Amino acid sequence: MGVPAHDAFPAKLWARMRARAVRADAITYTAYADPRGEPALRTQIASHLAVSRQMQCHPDQIIVTSGYRQGLMLALTALRPHGRKVWIEEPGYPLGRRALELTGAMLEPVPVDAEGLRVEDGIARAPDALLALVTPGQHAPLGVTLSPARRHALLDWAAESGAWIIEDDYLGELQLDGRAAPALAVGEGAERVIHIGSFSKTLSPALGLGFVVAPRLLAERLVEVAAVLAPAPNRTTQLAVTEFLADGHFLRHLRQMKALYAERRNLALAHISKFLSGSLTAGLGVIAPLPKSADDSVVADIARAHGLAPSALSAWYLRRTHAQRGLLLSVTNLRSENIDAACAKLASIVASH
Ligand SMILES: Cc1ncc(COP(=O)(O)O)c(C=O)c1O
Questions:
Q1: Burial class (CB in 10 A: 0-12, 13-18, 19+), 231
Q2: What is the model's pLDDT at position 281?
Q3: Rounded distance from Cα 351 to ligand 1 centre (Å)
Q4: Of the spans 18-27, 70-79, 267-276, which averages the highest pLDDT?
Q5: What is the 3-state secondary structure (H, E, C) of 223-263?
Q6: CA of 200 relative to ligand 1 center, distance in Å
Q7: What digits encode the pLDDT tens for the residues 169-190?
């Protein structure tokens, strides 16, 4: 799920930039680096966020990480949720949920509907939660954007109760229809939001690069956690990505990927709808709903044995008995040559199950 297109990664350009970065890095190779990450990269990320996510942040608020997961680790180490209630989205990203379980937090699943997180349900169940872990830009896995009313309700709750919001912005501006909504960490209420970004979807997970935008109140603590436990990764990759951003390649690549993924998504939807009715788009994928009686995990396992790689929707729920059943299908690496055969195979697996 959600791996960028293998055939569209600008490999030659990247190799050139990496080679230059290796040479630049060699000059200072015995020095300790800034644990927050290279200043030039933090400046580039801040400028990019201003354009793409309408965020006004200072490079000093940015901590470069090895991806979303390291950003989450920094946030959770700083906030110490052990024994405290935390809101998670239901359904929601399984690794985010597992990270909170590992910290010893008490998980409160908050349902997600067509407007995003049902904030009023969260307040009813756990008004005193320490934090909420959310994907407001494009919900994972349903793809919905948090509505303006819910957005305000969430920020108001955090301001009034002193809770923190961790914004998982894993897709950033990579939204296939229309313009991406501004980040939650924008404007009034943003001082309670820890924004976590990643280059895993926009460029490649193989780079192992992401960032945290620390709210002012937490910046010092987050930087200390980074300095002591998890300093910014590999300088060479950082320097190469700095050049990639500074020279405009990143914006160009994103524009191209949006167009490519939208084309592949439309192709997927057209084909899969012939076989599985009610299929709908979600983020960089398509969801094919299955009846409640179907075991989507079993269907996903059988499909894997046939060279297909759907993800079971029910696995994204904490409370499996309440789960919607369905298959999450990534579209980023689809090919027109084999889509019909793949859809027909999937439909026959579903039918026989
Ligand atoms: C909801 C969500 N958040 C974050 C990530 C990215 O994590 P990382 O940057 O650690 O690769 C993913 C990747 O699949 C994801 O689905």
A1: middle
A2: 92
A3: 32
A4: 70-79
A5: HHHHHHHCCCCCHHHHHHHHHHHHCCHHHHHHHHHHHHHHH
A6: 7
A7: 999 999 999 889 999 999 889 9
Instruction: Give me the mean pLDDT over the 308-320 stretch.
Output: 95
Between the CA of 103 and the centroid of ligand 1 the distance, in Å, is 18
**Could you give the 3-state DSSP secondary structure of residue 16?**
helix
Where are the domain boundaries for CATH 3.40.640.10 in the chain? 6-249
Ligand 1: list residues with CB < 6 Å.
2, 67-69, 93, 135, 140, 168, 170, 198, 200, 205, 210
- 93, 134, 196, 330: residue to mutate for ligand 1 pocket, most atoms within 8 A of CB: 93
Average per-residue pLDDT for the chain: 95
**pLDDT higher than 80, residue 29:** no
Q: Are 53 and 174 in contact (CB under 8 A)?
A: no
Q: Does pLDDT of 220 surpass 90?
A: yes
Instruction: Indicate the CATH number of 6-249 among 3.40.640.10, 3.30.750.24, 3.40.50.720, 3.40.50.300.
Output: 3.40.640.10
User: What is the pLDDT, as a whole number, of residue 321?
Assistant: 86
pLDDT digits (tens, 9 = 90+) for 39-76: 999 999 999 999 999 999 999 999 999 999 999 999 99
Ligand 1 center from residue 27 Cα (angstroms):
33
Identify the three-state secondary structure at position 44: helix
Whether the CB-CB separation of 176 and 191 falls below 8 Å is answered with no
Mean pLDDT of 27-33: 80
Question: CATH assignment of 251-344?
Answer: 3.90.1150.10
Secondary structure (3-state) at 299: helix
Helix axes 235-246, 39-52, angle to 10 degrees: 40
Q: Which atom of ligand 1 is nearest to the CA of 210?
A: 9
CATH 3.90.1150.10 location in the chain: 251-344
pLDDT(274) > 90: no
Per-residue confidence (pLDDT) for residue 186, from 0 to 100: 94
Cβ neighbours of residue 217 closer than 8 Å, sequence gap 6 or more: 191
Side chain identity, residue 76: L
Distance in Å, CA 140 to ligand 1 centroid: 9
